[in-house]
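Deviations from the work plan: none for this task. Representative record:
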Amino acid sequence: MSTTANNLDEAGDFDATAYIANLGRAARVAAVEMARATTQAKNAALIQIATNIEGAKADILAANARDVANASGLEDALVDRLTLNEHRIATMAEGLRAISELPDPIGETTDLCFRPSGVQVGQMRVPIGVIGIIYESRPNVTADAAGLCLKSGNTAILRGGSESLHSNSAIAECISNGLNHAGLPAVAVQMLDVSDRRAVGALLAAHQWVDVIVPRGGKSLIERVINEARMPVIKHLEGVCHVFIDEMADRKKAFDVALNSKTQRYGTCNTMETLLIARAISDQVLPELIQAYSDLGVELRGCAETCALDKRIKRAVEQDWFEEYLAPILAIRIVDDIDQAMEHIRHYGSQHTDCIVTEDLGAARRFLAEVDSSSVMLNASTRFADGFEYGLGAEVGISTDKIHARGPVGLKGLTSQKWIVIGDGHIRT
Amino acid sequence: MSTTANNLDEAGDFDATAYIANLGRAARVAAVEMARATTQAKNAALIQIATNIEGAKADILAANARDVANASGLEDALVDRLTLNEHRIATMAEGLRAISELPDPIGETTDLCFRPSGVQVGQMRVPIGVIGIIYESRPNVTADAAGLCLKSGNTAILRGGSESLHSNSAIAECISNGLNHAGLPAVAVQMLDVSDRRAVGALLAAHQWVDVIVPRGGKSLIERVINEARMPVIKHLEGVCHVFIDEMADRKKAFDVALNSKTQRYGTCNTMETLLIARAISDQVLPELIQAYSDLGVELRGCAETCALDKRIKRAVEQDWFEEYLAPILAIRIVDDIDQAMEHIRHYGSQHTDCIVTEDLGAARRFLAEVDSSSVMLNASTRFADGFEYGLGAEVGISTDKIHARGPVGLKGLTSQKWIVIGDGHIRT
């Protein structure tokens, strides 16, 4: 069939399936080349893209200004995420250079050993293939996601929010030029250039072209992806994160970790939303914490026992324990012990990040082993749950799924391991 | 709501959703206990189940005889897979004992290292949770799958084929008793005891209870699962496996590997279905191979060049190159070189298992790195692609997916890795 820039069929309607098939076919061809690209070529592309982004700073800011002007109706937090400035552009470029310095995961062969049959069996790390990424507002995701997909030998099909279309296009141009410059296929990173929502539906249906979908955005996006995707999904649902202060906690560490986990940033998914504290230590730790939270303007909602401690604390309702506030609000519950704390986390948590503060080895060992979250912490702020902090370089997202990659998804999360068998004419008898 | 054995509602209709919710809730509760079960308890259960199966041999054979009697209308291969005998029962018990001897993957913590912030970050291997397994005919899958799920600290919800209902029930009883005996929850392995197909639909929709679905069976089952599952799927689609005889192949090794890959067993997914051979060596290797295949009654279908070599070879049509024969039929194509061979595998293959026979290091290196299949082999029969041969013990299936587990799925494929962060009161600044 003949196609035009926007895949309009004869009746003038947008043919989303044909549009995605065109991108998909190009991505599949490029994937073969990307899978065998040398580390040198991939790094050269990353560094060139960083240079291009710095060089195109004025153009990117102008494109972004158009997006921001169109976004006047949107809420402040969204406009903030959408807005680029010199610092954010510099950070994008730095991120790409940081990815170029990470070890290349592709080809790493592990556990190669002789089997009784005489063949050697091991595993080799390889790209997944074509990664679809659907995200909202933040244009910096365009550079981060492209960089990670490129370094891990994948091709990417990106669909940013329609509110950031101009910013994303400006960044995408820097990416294609960088790929070209390094002798890699420019279509290794493709960006959907239409805002028609049917294109997303067609992308989610295209399991013959797209190997995995990574959605980054609000609940309604994630729900749409769960319902419509016909390929595996690496998704982040929500972060209802807990800090549990065990009765054997050090008071100073408990104070520091509980305060930092809530107040270092309010709107991030690894921010603590519920503080659990063992009854035996609550009156030694809570009053000071309540004061500190109140000084910072954090609204506190507590269980009956917590409310009895301080009249500034509102009574929490059942829904509070399920809530991802993403705001200066904190739920506090006094629990009997570690068992009740872990039971609470199992029932109300979202398997994102949970922390115990304790000096007791037995409690630490149990919490680390038994709490089934993507990150489980001991005496450390939940805010550490982050690809940069974990040494992954950038992250393409934080997965709350239980298979493939859990937690921050970096280069390794964009690879798979195939089996390698080496014989010398061996046959099975 | 009140439930009866078969979840009949007041109108006498089967309420599949309620039926699955009951199993799911029980599985979720048992999953907490299984995740923290000691290696000792899990091994004790495995060994006891093996003993129970041997002890109940007469009952299992009687139950199986009922299934086989009911299966009179089914095709021979299916009846063969359904039929148990003393040897197959002994193999089931041996398989469970072998799983008890494998290292326990749970709790293994790797790559724990200090980050610049001062916290230690690593990864801990944990169970996935609740595994749903849908399979057909072979009752031995009941024991294998249960054993692997148990050892990896998961709970399982099993749905065998309705044709093997009595056999599976008899084996399931041995499993529950073994779990009980070891002090583990008997509901850690549950078997759907209804043949109503709506139960499968309800199971595939139950993403709140089931973390991953493993289908084992024919294409129509797999397609139903792809379309209906609302949770991740670890699936095996088909095995269109290739052997490529490179121009630098050793003639003896080429003969052995090509013959064994096709004829050691015809009906398995790791059997070669297409032989590719470099033109430069074809006249030195093919005549002898054609004779050997013909002596064993293998029907040969070739490209025009191959057909010119021997009048016994039929002309292959386009569909032959896509075909998983699972039968004594082989497609043969003469290719220019390794590039054309890899192009053929990319276009027609199913990313299951592909092998190169060569003495040339450069060709071996390229083939192993570039062929994107779950198992890639050098000078070894494709029949080695198997959980036992790879040292995994039993396998719950062979995955042709590209994320999570690829190839044979053993204990590790039934686990995930969570992040562990250890600090000493560390906060993020």
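Chain B touches chain A through 73 residues (CB under 8 Å).
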